[in-house]
Specification:
single chain, 153 residues, mainly alpha, 2 domains
Length: 153
C-alpha cells in the first residue's frame, strides 16, 4: 500500500536521524541499528511531539476508572458535596472525584477493621456467564440535606 509505505519511510528517516545524532563512541559499541526490529508503537512514539508525550504520560498516570453506581449513591454523593459548597458563589470546594476517593478509602478502612469477612457471607450464586457470584445492594441510609454534626448551613 503506497500510503503505508510513505509513513514507514518518514518513520525510517526519523529513526535514522536519531541514530545519526548518537555519539560516535556509543554507536561503535552498540553497532548497527539497521538489523534491529522495531517494536510495535515505537515509530508512533518517535513521531510524537513533546506535548503529546507529556499528555500520554499524564493520562497513564491518572488511571481513570468508570463504575456504574446506583442512583441513590450518586445522589448521596451530590448531597454530601453540597454540604461543603461555598455559600457565597456556590463553587465546589474540591473535585467530586476526591470526595468519592475519600469516602471509598473510609469504607475500605472500616472493612479492614472488621473482625470477619463482610463480603463472602453476602455472595449469591448467579447464572451470569461473566460472574460466578452477585453481591446484593446494601440499603443506603438517608443522607440529610445539611451537615448532621455541625451548625453549618
Amino acid at each position: 500500500m503506497p500510503g503505508t509505505n510513505a509513513g514507514t519511510q518518514g518513520s525510517d528517516r526519523r529513526l535514522q536521524k536519531l541514530i545519526q545524532d548518537t555519539d560516535p563512541a556509543v554507536a561503535n559499541q552498540v553497532g548497527s541499528f539497521s538489523d534491529v526490529p522495531i517494536e510495535p508503537g515505537v515509530e508512533q512514539q518517535i513521531a510524537m511531539t513533546d506535548y503529546e508525550r507529556r499528555k500520554l504520560s499524564n493520562d497513564r498516570r491518572r488511571n481513570r476508572q468508570a463504575y456504574d453506581l446506583p442512583e441513590e449513591l450518586v445522589q448521596a454523593i451530590a448531597t454530601i458535596m453540597n454540604w461543603y459548597r461555598d455559600s457565597k458563589d456556590q463553587r465546589l470546594p474540591f473535585p467530586i472525584s476526591r470526595l468519592v476517593a475519600y469516602l471509598i478509602t473510609l469504607g475500605i478502612q472500616k472493612m479492614l477493621e472488621m473482625p470477619s469477612d463482610p463480603i463472602s457471607p453476602m455472595l449469591e450464586r448467579t447464572d451470569s456467564p461473566r460472574f460466578a457470584y452477585n453481591l446484593p445492594d446494601i440499603k443506603l441510609p438517608a443522607v440529610p440535606k445539611t451537615l448532621p454534626w455541625s451548625g453549618k448551613k
